[in-house]
Amino acid sequence: MLKRFGIALLCCLFLLFTAACSSGSSTSIKLAEVTRSVFYAPQYVAIEEDFFEEEGINIELQTTWGGDKTMTALLSDGADVALVGSETSIYVAAQGSKDKAINFAQLTQTDGTFLVAKEPKPDFKWEDIKNSTFLGQRVGGMPQMVGEYVLKQNSIDPQTDLNLIQNVDFANIPGAFSSGDAEYVQLFEPTASTFEKEGEGHIIASFGEESGSVPYTTFMTKESFINEDEETVKSFTKAIYKAQQWVQEHSAEEIADVIQPYFEDTSTEMLATSIERYKNQDSFASEPVLAKDGWNNLKTIMDEAGELPEDIPYEELVNTKIAEEVIGN
């Protein structure tokens, strides 16, 4: 009897020791997201479904509210990984940074904004925007550049054909549209759907559908971080790939239930509506590889906006090796 008790006790101690060792081996990653958006649903799924934990990663998530602030966090070691528009890596490289920001995993593959009007526009045509007051986004940011690109594709010059307002901080744009005189605005989800439900605006077009494939939001880290700890970056990418596949295989309602903790002021029904919009236009990338044609489309959009500082090659700022190995395995 005592012998069996002793064996059982040793087994329990072994399990406790194994668990302690396992928890002690977890790697903490400081992750900075450029904003909080349903657009990033796969990232929240990766956290909530424990895909990061399965890869031995503990995520410390922070929302940095803007591309410039997000890149500052990454470059100053306030973050290990940044979820932000790929254009920021081009800006950093053009400034002569010796430690480049490298795109290693794509999360979204279209623009995530929708054109919202104050009044209903059942027969909307892009030319209807001419001579209107348009509340724009930050100069040099992806929402604004894609917005300008789409408008130009529809024979509208944002600078001469619109009363373009661009002096409002990103986080304050929804409130400024609600209380101001602007007739049109670009909004992400779930804000766009919330405005529509509350009668404060009407979704009349999708910039994502109009602009085509583009690496709108990617995970990036400093080149030195990859050189020093490529295995951690690979484990991070594995977790994201698992989440991307999970999102592809589950309904908008199921995804909404999982990511609800990140949007406490939004109902699951509204989240599901927003997610369905993004799924319908293939905004969520199904795998983390950032393709070259998307990168070239990004540079075209930046060039059209007059914001491409330098034609930096795809191979210089994009690492596909890690994502390809993850998918292959």
From TrEMBL:
For this record, an example GO cellular component is: periplasmic space
Gene3D superfamilies attached here? Periplasmic binding protein-like II (3.40.190.10)
Q: Which Pfam families match?
A: NMT1_2
Q: Where in the cell is it found?
A: Periplasm
Query: Which PANTHER family would you find in this protein's record?
Result: ALIPHATIC SULFONATES-BINDING PROTEIN-RELATED (PTHR30024), TAURINE-BINDING PERIPLASMIC PROTEIN (PTHR30024:SF47)
What's the source species for this entry?
Lentibacillus amyloliquefaciens
Q: What is the lineage of its organism?
A: Bacteria, Bacillati, Bacillota, Bacilli, Bacillales
**Which family is annotated?**
Belongs to the bacterial solute-binding protein SsuA/TauA family.
Name this protein carries in UniProt:
SsuA/THI5-like domain-containing protein
User: What are the protein's UniProt keywords?
Assistant: Signal
